[in-house]
Design a protein that fits this description.
START-like_dom_sf; Cyclase; alpha+beta; Polyketide_cyclase/dehydratase; 3 helices; 7-stranded antiparallel sheet; Alpha-D-Glucose-1,6-Bisphosphate, Chain A, domain 4; globular
Length: about 150
């Protein structure tokens, strides 16, 4: 059964600055604790990641996944191509400029291949959405400061 979650955060940056941080796949494990490793397998002509292989650890389960990104001016989304513990994963960041800030909405839907108690799944999803928003915000601000 598929499970969905979403969360919003305001980041003091432009959509382009935020998308640049999302596109820096090599740095993702440094700000997202669920990521054990991440590597770009293929890129689009503009250099943005297309296919990425990553190892994720959440709720005591380690999974190796291949995902494919789709980039737009104010949005990035990704879809699961292959995994061992998930049947499906669709996620996205939708960016809405607001003056010198950007409202970022993160949406995710997953369908596990293995059964997991509801409370554990809910806690893992909450941790993932918090990292995807608050963790992203911290990383964007760190990059803007040149850190």
């Amino acid at each position: 059964m598929a499970t969905s979650d979403s969360r919003e955060v305001v980041i003091e940056a432009t959509p382009q600055e935020i998308l640049d941080v999302v596109a820096d796949i090599d740095a993702t494990p440094s700000w997202s604790p669920q990521y054990q490793s991440a590597e770009v397998m293929d890129t689009y002509e503009d250099g943005r990641p297309r296919r990425v292989k990553m190892t994720i650890k959440a709720a005591g389960i380690t999974d190796t996944q291949v995902i494919e990104y789709t980039w737009a001016e104010n949005k990035v989304s990704w879809t699961l191509i292959r995994a061992t513990q998930l049947k499906k994963q669709d996620a996205s960041y939708t960016l809405t400029p607001d003056g010198d800030k950007t409202r970022v909405k993160f949406d995710i839907t997953i369908d596990l291949a293995v059964p997991l108690p509801g409370f554990i799944l809910k806690r893992a999803m909450k941790g993932g959405t918090e990292t995807a928003t608050d963790g992203l915000r911290k990383q964007v601000l760190k990059v803007k400061k040149g850190g």
